[in-house]
């Protein structure tokens, strides 16, 4: 069985049409496999997952993915807004999924 520390996914968003919708649905708009299939497959390989997705992705769906893991995974979301970052990475959002145990073991910083 394939094992890794982290899996990085950058699935095709379906061309520039993703920006024409208010909310990007990872169940219906990701092709040929939906975001739920990709998440389920990747979580079998690693307990840390990074997905590069459009900024208008449905955040409720991302939370739903985390809750579907046993035990539930924590969700850390970084929004790459062009006004804030020096280097613009086409304004997309990058969700990081990680095991809650790993999250709790991280050092706390103020």
What does this structure look like?
The protein is α+β, with helices and mostly antiparallel strands and 110 residues long. The protein has helices at residues 35-43, 59-68, 100-105; strands spanning 7-9, 48-51, 74-79, 93-98. The longest helix is centred in the middle third of the chain and has 10 residues, at 59-68. It has a four-stranded mixed β-sheet. The chain has one domain (7-105): Vaccinia Virus protein VP39 (Rossmann fold). The protein has three helices and four strands.
Total beta strands: 4
CATH superfamily: Vaccinia Virus protein VP39
Structural class: alpha+beta
At CATH level 2, the architecture is: 3-Layer(aba) Sandwich
SS strand fraction: 15-25%
Strand order of the largest sheet: 1-2-4-3
SSE topology string: EHEHEEH
**Gyration radius over CA:** 14 Å
Family: Belongs to the methyltransferase superfamily. Trimethylguanosine synthase family.
InterPro entries: RNA_cap_Gua-N2-MeTrfase, SAM-dependent_MTases_sf
Protein name: Trimethylguanosine synthase
Organism: Fagus sylvatica
């Amino acid at each position: 069985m394939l094992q890794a520390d982290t899996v990085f996914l950058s699935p095709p968003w379906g061309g520039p049409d993703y920006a024409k919708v208010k909310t990007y649905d990872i169940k219906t708009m990701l092709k040929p496999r939906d975001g739920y299939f990709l998440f389920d497959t990747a979580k079998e390989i690693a307990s840390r997952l990074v997905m590069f997705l459009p900024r208008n992705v449905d955040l409720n769906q991302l939370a739903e993915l985390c809750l579907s893991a046993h035990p539930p995974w924590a969700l850390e979301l970084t929004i790459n807004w062009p006004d804030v970052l020096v280097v613009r990475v086409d304004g997309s959002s990058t969700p990081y999924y990680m095991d809650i145990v790993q999250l709790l073991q991280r050092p706390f910083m103020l």
